Please model this.
Amino acid sequence: MEAEVRGARELEWLASHREAYAGQWVALQGGRLLAAGPDAGDVFSKVRGLTPPAMVMRVDEEGLASAGW
Model:
């Protein structure tokens, strides 16, 4: 259940900020932006080891996202 709540917060954040981050990778935790940038490796390295893990997703140019923890 907690993962569902966390996922909902990240998706709410994304809906509000997707235009500003189109084409970038973002790392979110509890609806807070932790890192962002064009390189997935850089973003993942900034949040590696966090507990709970951050959700990292790429926001494509059309504003859609692909995600993972």
